[in-house]
Amino acid sequence: MDRKVANTSDPPNHSSERSFLDHDGFFTNTFQKERLARGFLRVVLPGKLRDCLDLDGLTIAPPNLVNTVFKKRHVDKIYRVPIRGTEHHVDFFVILEHKSYNDFWTIFQLWVYVALVCQQEYQGVADAGSGHVPVGYRLPPVIAIILHHGESRFTGKTELSEVFLQLPGLEEYLPRLQAVLFDLSAMSDDDVPDDPDVPELKLVLMAMKIIFRKDAGTTIKAILEELGSVSADPLLQDIVCMVWYYFATSAKHMEHDFNVLYETINKIVEVEPMSTMIENAIARGRAEGIARGKAEGKAEGKAEGKAEGKAEGKAEMVLKALRKKFKQIPQEAEESILSMSDPIALESLLEHVFDSDTFDEFVTAL
Q: How many Å apart are CA 33 and CA 243, to the nearest integer?
Protein backbone atom coordinates (compact mmCIF):
# COMPACT_ATOMS: atom_id res chain seq x y z
CA MET A 1 0.00 0.00 0.00
CA ASP A 2 1.80 3.15 -1.19
CA ARG A 3 1.37 6.22 0.91
CA LYS A 4 2.75 9.71 0.90
CA VAL A 5 4.10 10.73 4.29
CA ALA A 6 4.25 14.40 5.14
CA ASN A 7 7.29 15.82 6.88
CA THR A 8 6.93 16.39 10.60
CA SER A 9 8.89 18.11 13.30
CA ASP A 10 7.49 15.85 15.99
CA PRO A 11 10.49 13.97 17.45
CA PRO A 12 10.16 10.24 18.07
CA ASN A 13 10.12 9.16 21.68
CA HIS A 14 10.52 5.48 22.47
CA SER A 15 10.81 6.16 26.19
CA SER A 16 10.23 3.14 28.38
CA GLU A 17 8.46 5.48 30.81
CA ARG A 18 5.41 4.99 28.56
CA SER A 19 5.59 1.20 28.74
CA PHE A 20 2.20 1.16 30.44
CA LEU A 21 -0.46 3.22 28.64
CA ASP A 22 -4.09 3.29 29.69
CA HIS A 23 -6.79 4.86 27.50
CA ASP A 24 -6.04 8.41 28.62
CA GLY A 25 -2.29 7.90 28.31
CA PHE A 26 -2.58 6.57 24.77
CA PHE A 27 -4.84 9.44 23.70
CA THR A 28 -2.61 12.07 25.34
CA ASN A 29 0.60 10.77 23.78
CA THR A 30 -0.76 10.26 20.26
CA PHE A 31 -2.93 13.35 19.87
CA GLN A 32 -0.01 15.46 21.07
CA LYS A 33 1.55 14.84 17.65
CA GLU A 34 0.81 17.83 15.39
CA ARG A 35 0.77 15.76 12.18
CA LEU A 36 -1.82 13.40 13.60
CA ALA A 37 -3.87 16.32 14.98
CA ARG A 38 -3.92 17.98 11.55
CA GLY A 39 -5.01 14.73 9.90
CA PHE A 40 -7.76 14.20 12.48
CA LEU A 41 -9.17 17.71 12.07
CA ARG A 42 -9.15 17.35 8.28
CA VAL A 43 -11.55 14.40 8.54
CA VAL A 44 -13.70 15.76 11.38
CA LEU A 45 -14.24 19.46 10.71
CA PRO A 46 -16.94 20.54 8.22
CA GLY A 47 -15.51 21.24 4.76
CA LYS A 48 -16.54 24.93 4.66
CA LEU A 49 -14.87 25.51 8.02
CA ARG A 50 -11.68 23.72 6.94
CA ASP A 51 -11.37 26.10 4.00
CA CYS A 52 -11.17 29.02 6.43
CA LEU A 53 -8.32 27.52 8.43
CA ASP A 54 -4.59 27.14 7.97
CA LEU A 55 -4.24 23.65 9.44
CA ASP A 56 -0.54 23.59 8.53
CA GLY A 57 -0.09 26.29 11.16
CA LEU A 58 -1.75 24.22 13.92
CA THR A 59 0.00 24.28 17.29
CA ILE A 60 -0.71 22.54 20.59
CA ALA A 61 -1.92 25.07 23.15
CA PRO A 62 -1.17 24.67 26.89
CA PRO A 63 -3.83 22.38 28.42
CA ASN A 64 -4.16 24.22 31.75
CA LEU A 65 -6.78 26.95 32.04
CA VAL A 66 -7.21 29.06 35.18
CA ASN A 67 -9.36 31.99 36.28
CA THR A 68 -10.41 33.60 39.54
CA VAL A 69 -13.74 31.76 39.71
CA PHE A 70 -12.92 28.20 38.64
CA LYS A 71 -10.07 26.14 39.97
CA LYS A 72 -7.31 25.03 37.62
CA ARG A 73 -8.69 22.95 34.74
CA HIS A 74 -6.68 20.48 32.70
CA VAL A 75 -8.15 20.12 29.21
CA ASP A 76 -7.45 16.93 27.25
CA LYS A 77 -6.28 18.79 24.14
CA ILE A 78 -6.47 22.38 22.88
CA TYR A 79 -5.38 23.15 19.33
CA ARG A 80 -4.75 26.69 18.11
CA VAL A 81 -5.21 27.16 14.34
CA PRO A 82 -4.60 30.35 12.32
CA ILE A 83 -7.55 31.69 10.32
CA ARG A 84 -6.94 32.33 6.62
CA GLY A 85 -7.41 35.82 5.18
CA THR A 86 -8.38 37.57 8.40
CA GLU A 87 -7.02 40.90 9.54
CA HIS A 88 -8.06 40.22 13.11
CA HIS A 89 -5.44 38.97 15.55
CA VAL A 90 -7.67 36.07 16.51
CA ASP A 91 -7.06 32.34 16.12
CA PHE A 92 -9.48 29.43 15.88
CA PHE A 93 -9.48 26.97 18.79
CA VAL A 94 -10.38 23.29 18.94
CA ILE A 95 -11.08 21.69 22.32
CA LEU A 96 -10.81 17.91 22.02
CA GLU A 97 -12.25 15.89 24.90
CA HIS A 98 -11.48 12.16 25.09
CA LYS A 99 -13.91 9.70 26.69
CA SER A 100 -13.54 5.93 26.96
CA TYR A 101 -16.88 5.65 28.78
CA ASN A 102 -20.28 7.34 28.74
CA ASP A 103 -20.31 10.64 30.62
CA PHE A 104 -23.60 12.54 30.63
CA TRP A 105 -21.95 15.77 31.79
CA THR A 106 -19.29 15.97 29.07
CA ILE A 107 -21.06 18.84 27.31
CA PHE A 108 -21.25 20.83 30.54
CA GLN A 109 -17.55 20.21 31.10
CA LEU A 110 -16.82 21.48 27.56
CA TRP A 111 -18.89 24.61 28.17
CA VAL A 112 -16.58 25.53 31.04
CA TYR A 113 -13.53 24.93 28.87
CA VAL A 114 -14.88 27.05 26.00
CA ALA A 115 -15.62 29.91 28.40
CA LEU A 116 -12.13 29.70 29.90
CA VAL A 117 -10.43 29.73 26.49
CA CYS A 118 -12.41 32.83 25.52
CA GLN A 119 -11.71 34.49 28.84
CA GLN A 120 -8.01 33.74 28.52
CA GLU A 121 -7.86 35.31 25.04
CA TYR A 122 -9.99 38.29 26.13
CA GLN A 123 -7.71 38.90 29.11
CA GLY A 124 -4.67 38.76 26.83
CA VAL A 125 -6.14 41.57 24.71
CA ALA A 126 -7.01 43.55 27.84
CA ASP A 127 -3.50 43.19 29.24
CA ALA A 128 -1.97 44.24 25.92
CA GLY A 129 -4.19 47.32 25.88
CA SER A 130 -3.58 48.35 29.50
CA GLY A 131 -6.93 46.96 30.54
CA HIS A 132 -8.83 48.27 27.53
CA VAL A 133 -10.49 45.90 25.04
CA PRO A 134 -11.44 47.55 21.72
CA VAL A 135 -15.12 47.67 20.85
CA GLY A 136 -14.39 45.92 17.58
CA TYR A 137 -12.69 42.95 19.23
CA ARG A 138 -14.42 39.61 18.74
CA LEU A 139 -13.91 36.51 20.82
CA PRO A 140 -12.07 33.63 19.16
CA PRO A 141 -14.24 30.99 17.49
CA VAL A 142 -14.07 27.71 19.43
CA ILE A 143 -15.33 24.27 18.45
CA ALA A 144 -15.68 21.40 20.92
CA ILE A 145 -15.15 17.80 19.82
CA ILE A 146 -15.93 14.67 21.83
CA LEU A 147 -13.78 11.70 20.81
CA HIS A 148 -15.43 8.61 22.30
CA HIS A 149 -14.53 4.95 22.21
CA GLY A 150 -15.93 2.29 24.50
CA GLU A 151 -17.85 -0.93 24.69
CA SER A 152 -21.08 0.85 23.78
CA ARG A 153 -22.14 4.00 21.95
CA PHE A 154 -21.93 7.44 23.53
CA THR A 155 -25.34 8.39 24.93
CA GLY A 156 -24.50 11.68 26.64
CA LYS A 157 -25.90 14.98 25.39
CA THR A 158 -23.96 16.90 22.76
CA GLU A 159 -25.97 20.15 22.93
CA LEU A 160 -25.64 22.23 26.09
CA SER A 161 -29.26 23.39 26.21
CA GLU A 162 -30.38 19.78 26.69
CA VAL A 163 -28.83 19.50 30.18
CA PHE A 164 -30.88 22.44 31.51
CA LEU A 165 -34.30 22.11 33.08
CA GLN A 166 -36.76 22.80 30.28
CA LEU A 167 -39.56 25.35 30.78
CA PRO A 168 -42.13 26.59 28.23
CA GLY A 169 -40.85 29.58 26.24
CA LEU A 170 -37.29 29.22 27.57
CA GLU A 171 -35.75 27.20 24.74
CA GLU A 172 -34.43 30.09 22.63
CA TYR A 173 -32.76 31.74 25.64
CA LEU A 174 -30.68 28.80 26.79
CA PRO A 175 -26.96 28.59 25.86
CA ARG A 176 -26.54 26.42 22.76
CA LEU A 177 -23.02 25.06 22.59
CA GLN A 178 -23.15 22.17 20.11
CA ALA A 179 -20.27 19.70 20.28
CA VAL A 180 -19.08 17.52 17.41
CA LEU A 181 -19.38 13.86 18.42
CA PHE A 182 -16.80 11.54 16.89
CA ASP A 183 -17.93 8.19 18.25
CA LEU A 184 -15.67 5.32 17.20
CA SER A 185 -17.99 2.88 18.95
CA ALA A 186 -20.81 3.77 16.55
CA MET A 187 -18.69 3.32 13.39
CA SER A 188 -18.00 0.21 11.40
CA ASP A 189 -14.34 -0.62 10.86
CA ASP A 190 -14.63 0.41 7.21
CA ASP A 191 -15.93 3.85 8.20
CA VAL A 192 -12.93 4.75 10.35
CA PRO A 193 -11.29 7.59 8.38
CA ASP A 194 -7.87 7.42 6.80
CA ASP A 195 -5.51 10.11 5.50
CA PRO A 196 -2.80 9.15 2.97
CA ASP A 197 -0.55 11.92 4.33
CA VAL A 198 -0.99 10.72 7.92
CA PRO A 199 -0.61 6.91 7.91
CA GLU A 200 -0.69 6.74 11.71
CA LEU A 201 -4.18 8.27 11.94
CA LYS A 202 -6.16 5.13 11.09
CA LEU A 203 -3.80 3.02 13.21
CA VAL A 204 -4.47 5.18 16.28
CA LEU A 205 -8.22 5.41 15.73
CA MET A 206 -8.56 1.68 15.08
CA ALA A 207 -6.47 0.85 18.15
CA MET A 208 -8.85 2.90 20.29
CA LYS A 209 -11.91 1.40 18.57
CA ILE A 210 -11.00 -2.28 18.92
CA ILE A 211 -9.14 -2.27 22.25
CA PHE A 212 -12.19 -3.83 23.96
CA ARG A 213 -12.84 -6.51 21.31
CA LYS A 214 -11.93 -10.18 21.12
CA ASP A 215 -10.45 -9.76 17.63
CA ALA A 216 -8.27 -6.81 18.71
CA GLY A 217 -4.98 -8.63 18.15
CA THR A 218 -5.69 -9.99 14.68
CA THR A 219 -7.32 -6.76 13.49
CA ILE A 220 -4.50 -4.45 14.58
CA LYS A 221 -1.97 -6.92 13.17
CA ALA A 222 -3.56 -6.63 9.72
CA ILE A 223 -3.47 -2.82 9.89
CA LEU A 224 0.20 -2.87 10.90
CA GLU A 225 1.06 -5.14 7.98
CA GLU A 226 -0.51 -2.60 5.58
CA LEU A 227 1.92 0.05 6.81
CA GLY A 228 5.01 -1.76 5.55
CA SER A 229 5.82 0.77 2.81
CA VAL A 230 6.08 3.66 5.30
CA SER A 231 7.42 1.75 8.30
CA ALA A 232 10.71 3.70 8.29
CA ASP A 233 8.94 6.96 9.16
CA PRO A 234 10.14 7.99 12.68
CA LEU A 235 6.80 9.35 13.84
CA LEU A 236 4.96 6.24 12.67
CA GLN A 237 7.49 4.06 14.50
CA ASP A 238 6.86 6.03 17.69
CA ILE A 239 3.11 5.55 17.30
CA VAL A 240 3.58 1.80 16.67
CA CYS A 241 5.54 1.59 19.94
CA MET A 242 2.68 3.27 21.77
CA VAL A 243 0.15 0.89 20.20
CA TRP A 244 2.15 -2.05 21.61
CA TYR A 245 2.31 -0.53 25.09
CA TYR A 246 -1.38 0.41 24.92
CA PHE A 247 -2.47 -3.10 23.94
CA ALA A 248 -0.16 -4.69 26.51
CA THR A 249 -1.74 -2.54 29.20
CA SER A 250 -5.38 -2.12 28.23
CA ALA A 251 -6.54 -4.79 25.74
CA LYS A 252 -9.18 -7.04 27.26
CA HIS A 253 -8.88 -10.18 25.12
CA MET A 254 -5.26 -10.62 24.10
CA GLU A 255 -4.11 -13.71 26.00
CA HIS A 256 -3.27 -15.71 22.86
CA ASP A 257 -2.30 -12.85 20.55
CA PHE A 258 0.47 -10.99 22.36
CA ASN A 259 3.33 -13.06 20.91
CA VAL A 260 2.04 -12.78 17.33
CA LEU A 261 1.43 -9.04 17.72
CA TYR A 262 4.88 -8.57 19.24
CA GLU A 263 6.50 -10.27 16.23
CA THR A 264 4.58 -8.05 13.80
CA ILE A 265 5.42 -4.83 15.64
CA ASN A 266 9.05 -5.82 16.08
CA LYS A 267 9.42 -5.91 12.27
CA ILE A 268 8.60 -2.18 12.24
CA VAL A 269 10.33 -0.98 15.39
CA GLU A 270 12.12 -2.68 18.25
CA VAL A 271 9.95 -2.93 21.36
CA GLU A 272 10.22 -4.73 24.66
CA PRO A 273 8.50 -8.11 25.06
CA MET A 274 5.89 -8.12 27.78
CA SER A 275 8.04 -10.02 30.28
CA THR A 276 10.78 -7.41 29.94
CA MET A 277 8.27 -4.58 30.31
CA ILE A 278 7.11 -5.99 33.63
CA GLU A 279 10.68 -6.54 34.82
CA ASN A 280 11.61 -2.98 33.87
CA ALA A 281 8.59 -1.65 35.71
CA ILE A 282 9.78 -3.40 38.86
CA ALA A 283 13.31 -2.08 38.35
CA ARG A 284 12.07 1.48 37.83
CA GLY A 285 9.92 1.27 40.94
CA ARG A 286 12.90 0.00 42.91
CA ALA A 287 15.17 2.74 41.54
CA GLU A 288 12.64 5.46 42.32
CA GLY A 289 12.31 4.11 45.82
CA ILE A 290 16.08 4.14 46.33
CA ALA A 291 16.25 7.70 44.99
CA ARG A 292 13.58 8.84 47.44
CA GLY A 293 15.47 7.16 50.25
CA LYS A 294 18.74 8.86 49.26
CA ALA A 295 17.03 12.22 49.06
CA GLU A 296 16.01 11.83 52.69
CA GLY A 297 19.68 11.35 53.56
CA LYS A 298 18.97 8.58 56.05
CA ALA A 299 19.79 4.91 55.94
CA GLU A 300 16.30 3.98 57.08
CA GLY A 301 14.80 6.28 54.43
CA LYS A 302 16.86 4.54 51.78
CA ALA A 303 15.72 1.12 52.97
CA GLU A 304 12.10 2.22 53.11
CA GLY A 305 12.32 3.77 49.67
CA LYS A 306 13.83 0.62 48.22
CA ALA A 307 11.09 -1.53 49.77
CA GLU A 308 8.40 0.87 48.59
CA GLY A 309 9.73 0.84 45.04
CA LYS A 310 9.89 -2.95 45.05
CA ALA A 311 6.32 -3.14 46.37
CA GLU A 312 5.07 -0.74 43.68
CA GLY A 313 6.60 -2.89 40.98
CA LYS A 314 5.08 -6.08 42.35
CA ALA A 315 1.69 -4.40 42.77
CA GLU A 316 1.77 -3.51 39.06
CA MET A 317 2.57 -7.15 38.26
CA VAL A 318 -0.41 -8.34 40.31
CA LEU A 319 -2.76 -5.87 38.59
CA LYS A 320 -1.40 -6.82 35.18
CA ALA A 321 -2.00 -10.50 35.84
CA LEU A 322 -5.50 -9.81 37.17
CA ARG A 323 -6.46 -7.78 34.08
CA LYS A 324 -5.26 -10.52 31.78
CA LYS A 325 -7.13 -13.26 33.65
CA PHE A 326 -10.32 -11.57 34.82
CA LYS A 327 -10.54 -8.62 32.35
CA GLN A 328 -12.00 -5.99 34.71
CA ILE A 329 -10.94 -5.19 38.26
CA PRO A 330 -13.20 -3.31 40.71
CA GLN A 331 -11.75 0.05 41.71
CA GLU A 332 -11.72 -0.83 45.40
CA ALA A 333 -9.70 -3.99 44.76
CA GLU A 334 -7.17 -2.08 42.64
CA GLU A 335 -6.78 0.56 45.34
CA SER A 336 -6.33 -2.14 47.97
CA ILE A 337 -3.54 -3.81 46.00
CA LEU A 338 -1.77 -0.52 45.29
CA SER A 339 -1.86 0.35 48.99
CA MET A 340 0.05 -2.81 49.96
CA SER A 341 3.67 -2.14 50.99
CA ASP A 342 4.90 -5.68 51.69
CA PRO A 343 6.71 -7.11 48.62
CA ILE A 344 6.56 -10.65 50.03
CA ALA A 345 2.80 -10.44 50.53
CA LEU A 346 2.38 -9.09 47.01
CA GLU A 347 4.48 -11.93 45.62
CA SER A 348 2.21 -14.40 47.39
CA LEU A 349 -0.80 -12.55 46.00
CA LEU A 350 0.59 -12.87 42.48
CA GLU A 351 0.80 -16.65 42.89
CA HIS A 352 -2.79 -16.62 44.12
CA VAL A 353 -3.90 -14.96 40.86
CA PHE A 354 -2.79 -18.00 38.89
CA ASP A 355 -4.34 -20.41 41.40
CA SER A 356 -7.75 -18.70 41.41
CA ASP A 357 -10.48 -19.76 38.99
CA THR A 358 -12.69 -16.72 39.70
CA PHE A 359 -12.09 -13.18 40.87
CA ASP A 360 -14.22 -13.82 43.98
CA GLU A 361 -11.87 -16.64 44.90
CA PHE A 362 -8.91 -14.30 44.52
CA VAL A 363 -10.58 -11.61 46.67
CA THR A 364 -10.48 -13.92 49.68
CA ALA A 365 -6.71 -13.44 49.77
CA LEU A 366 -6.96 -9.64 50.07
A: 14
